[in-house]
Fold:
Amino acid sequence: MVAARADCSRRKKNEEADAVTNDTDPATVERAPRLTKAAVGLVRPVIEGVRPQVDCGRYPAKASIGEPVIVEADIFCDGHDALSCEVRHRPPGARGWTSVAMAPLGNDRWRATFPTKDLGRHRFQVVAVIDRFASWRRDTLVKANDGQDVAVDLALGAQLLTGAAVRAKGVGRRALTAYAEALAVAPRGLETTVAHDPLLSEGAPLRTVADLLQAPELEHLLWRTRDLGAAAVGPELAVFVDPERARFSAWYELFPRSAGMRGGRHGTLADVEARLDEVAAMGFDVVYLPPIHPIGTTNRKGADGGGAARRADPGSPWAIGAREGGHTAIHPELGTEKDLASLLRAARRRGIEVALDVAFQCSPDHPWVREHPSWFRHLPDGSIRYAENPPKRYEDIYPIDFETPQWRELWDELAAVVGYWIDQGITVFRVDNPHTKSLAFWEWLLAEVKAKRPEVIFLAEAFTRPRLMYRLAKIGFTQSYTYFTWRTEKTELQTYLEEITQPPVSDFFQPNFWPNTPDILHKSLQEGGRPAFMQRLILAATLTANYGIYGPAYELGENVPARPAPGKTESEEYMDSEKYEVRQRSRNQPGSLVPLIALLNKIRRENPALQSNGSLHFHPVDNPNLMCYSKSVKEGTGDDNTILVAVNLDPFNEQAGWIDLDLKLLGISYDQNFDVEDLLTGSHYTWRDRSNYVALRPNVMPAHVFRVART
Amino acid sequence: MVAARADCSRRKKNEEADAVTNDTDPATVERAPRLTKAAVGLVRPVIEGVRPQVDCGRYPAKASIGEPVIVEADIFCDGHDALSCEVRHRPPGARGWTSVAMAPLGNDRWRATFPTKDLGRHRFQVVAVIDRFASWRRDTLVKANDGQDVAVDLALGAQLLTGAAVRAKGVGRRALTAYAEALAVAPRGLETTVAHDPLLSEGAPLRTVADLLQAPELEHLLWRTRDLGAAAVGPELAVFVDPERARFSAWYELFPRSAGMRGGRHGTLADVEARLDEVAAMGFDVVYLPPIHPIGTTNRKGADGGGAARRADPGSPWAIGAREGGHTAIHPELGTEKDLASLLRAARRRGIEVALDVAFQCSPDHPWVREHPSWFRHLPDGSIRYAENPPKRYEDIYPIDFETPQWRELWDELAAVVGYWIDQGITVFRVDNPHTKSLAFWEWLLAEVKAKRPEVIFLAEAFTRPRLMYRLAKIGFTQSYTYFTWRTEKTELQTYLEEITQPPVSDFFQPNFWPNTPDILHKSLQEGGRPAFMQRLILAATLTANYGIYGPAYELGENVPARPAPGKTESEEYMDSEKYEVRQRSRNQPGSLVPLIALLNKIRRENPALQSNGSLHFHPVDNPNLMCYSKSVKEGTGDDNTILVAVNLDPFNEQAGWIDLDLKLLGISYDQNFDVEDLLTGSHYTWRDRSNYVALRPNVMPAHVFRVART
Structure:
């Protein structure tokens, strides 16, 4: 006998924080009345399919601060009674629930939204009761219209109002009592004029009983005094509200050791600080640094990771730990904690956050290898197992053994590492290969961190299988790298984007699109030249609200791959990879993409449509090399904004074709002229109706980024 | 910290019934080893998306006895380790779990099936562990192929096998120890020939270590000794296994009072018995009788429900209860309990079950009105509220008030009614308007009944909104009436069928298609004449495995509607409705559909493809009036059978067109001849490849029902 439960969550104890009637705000948002314990046999509404709901409520959905959370549910009951449905929600730390009335969408679906003014875990649940007065009113009006005698019905209505009056206080009680009396003394039916209006002052025009029954004042009084005695209560669910940067960000990855201005010198954090103006001018708001910790010397890899290091080779920053320290130390050649603090201050002045890399693995020289040998796996010959992906071997790296019996101690130490950098002022982390470490650990760690510091952002670098990638998002990673880097054709891009920007995936997964990384120089960039770099940049910057590039390799169009590994014909690694050496470039090269990058980031900042993903829609084009999509911010939010992008996906040839626009989505009437302004070039076009022509030359500008002006 | 839980169910206590190693069956099905309690931090596999799973496991899925249950789940872990996944299942009353190994389907999806030999609630859950030996073997083979030294790896493998030996007993322990020794003494690598084969008798050909590692015998020994110490355990879910008739049945509804052979005489249960041979000859296996209880006289309705009854009017059988008794009494004019027992015996001899109507409502003369006034709603004027659907009034019926404070007593009494008829031998019930009664009550009642009598079938007559209709199926109704009665066009039929015959809906909802009922004479039948009756009959009998007709109105093609209600232009009610009077027909009328009905039911019995719904597939036809679909029983079940139906949906004109067959689904190769035999006419056709032509004349035979012969 579990009729009063909905879905899978256990019924919460019904004794809730005391109701506080919010007398200053007579709208639909108010403190929720007390839920009292009802006999399950008398609970009639059913609540199903509440959303957002990730894996049966096992994980919170994600939301962005300031954006209202849309809650929907299927709610119905036996028979034909009307329902009163509400969403109760509770921001982190709040003492009581606040209620918002839900509105029916048809087909038994109901919706309400609640605001997100605080970061962190907000709880919510759907509550539904029979609306006896609304049911009575509907039936009575129908019977009266049909000419039936409604004297008994009016007496019944008076009973219902008297019952509501008992639950009210002060003015409300007096008003409801007056309404009840008006019904009780109206034996001639609904058209009886009431002797005095319960709410209007003396002298106001008198009204009929039928008018009174439909008065908004009565509606509001009844909502305030609703009886939750036999309420159905949905599962208690959660949304985690992230900072705006979790939803909308532009990342720039650079190797600090390459940031030095003079040839060959090992760059420093101070050099990074000196480059901040350039980064800010390009419009990025996150600068991500690969690991800044001491690098091991044992089995250090040489150029392109190929063989043993020569003396001058600096090693991979991901081979973390040396005599100078481990995950909480800074590589001496990069600088000191003071330099980092200075960098963070300088960045923040420019609206930029510095993201550090969390790579939980060790070089053989890491202090943990000596201090905590049980955190590593020992082989039958007494050696410690190094990383391998057979037949590949990474002798410069020892993976941490998350199956150690000392896992609790290990978890605490790893959490302390993250805590250490948060204390240094870091609020954004890029996590290296989280899918190769314990998922249980991440779930615990992220919960621990976010409970205290909900503003901290974690980007998961998990280029892995879909289920595992999604699981990381569910267990708390804020953003995720994606398959975008390998999706280049129209159909695969559209299919992928539709999957990740719509529920259920978009409820928990926030994509961050990278056209390149230090590990991935995709074939399309190797072969497509500057037009390909432009295309991929524009796609990343406009398809999803979070994107990033690995620079200066990207803006300089570096496209020479490493030699293929033995037995392979291709490589996605960079030639002379920065992972293994210091690389300094002349950044004033002709053909640099810096101006385009700066323009795209400006367009993103100025157009709210590009700052979230939910509205992404693809419009058919009759050419497989042309892709067209729009994003818009809904009307009525004060930020009415629609962006329409057309991209030529072919880096070699001009492509032209007809777009078949979904005009309704763009807010354009059929058979109407409308203006589109290309924000990349400043050109204006007047378009008409749904079919419109575009032609794009990749070597000039492979895309239009139109702002649509509704006329 | 909840990493070891999957989805929403709470982790079950891990101490399970003792493991019993089933030594007689070395296959993949066996008693499951004990699950021991693991530190949550060490549980690495993740189990998500287990199916079948209805509303997060809140309700059991439905299955049919003898049909294996297919369980699937997404299972994966961090990193690259191999997994060992299994489904543990437990039939009703079983003491321990039985395990079946799951096989990977790709993309982290796994599948297993388990058999259903018993009626009732079967439980199951998915369990997954890291397969350390398989992971080790895969990596070691790759490294050996790459020419790397695997001496340390072989020692590691020997450790794993020694660990397995510790968990084994007797012969298994000795064999595993021998395997471990073979690895330990193979320092030269995987191609070392073993000195003696651990499993083969002396004198058998010797094998290499690599051969041994991949021996099925070792595989099986390792499965038997798998370590579930850090297993992930999915939610405990359930499937309710129904009798075959729940899945596959043909219903015939008749009014017993009309079953008399002579003009005007009130029919009896004995008259129904006398008609059983006709019903059996038509091939039906459920005879459903509208309520057989005493009928109230107060406010009794007259002909066509229009006004007050004249003296001779028998009243509606749904106005239940009179001086002679209520829901556990038989209307005296129909006969006695003895007559019912005789009818049931005679029916069962013919393979027919008699279904009674459960209509929980009362006439004003029902004994409950006097004995339990609190079960009805009293109005302010002291009267009892009669049923109404404003502006319509049903003064001959008092609805039961499920919100009575005496609901527990009410529930017990209603359950006693059902129990009473079960004790009389009834195992099939058609429930009248269950959606207008308490859902909590039904959930409780159905659980109570089925716990003791899992063979009992309940058909929900809930012509209501989709969510509510589905909810009734979830809470335990075996079958449901559907919207088929109103779906006549190709697109709406296909869309609806695809919704209800595929998961998630098909996991809990079993449709029963009725082309007519005593309440519904659809416009298409009113206007389409005999061809429409043939079309709708063929659709109902072949689209879903459960169907029924209200006869003899259907086989006689009765198509005259009642006069429209005031203000309406159409009526779906029958003229001279049997609901309000005794109707006797000459059943030997020319044009009777009896031969077609008998043939269709024969075809259904002889073709297993028509006995379930999951394989239903629509094939495109280039004519909107022609619909084509197939059903098949999969190869390898011993019942290889494919039925292909083409129906002309236009009752007035011949329609012809080209079908574009999905040949793969039919088991036909491209560019191949195949034979189709029309089971309605006996005609054979040789078809070729995917495009084939049909032409159907509605007044001759509006459909082909082909059996496809694969050559």
The CA atoms of residues 289 and 598 of chain B lie 20 Å apart.
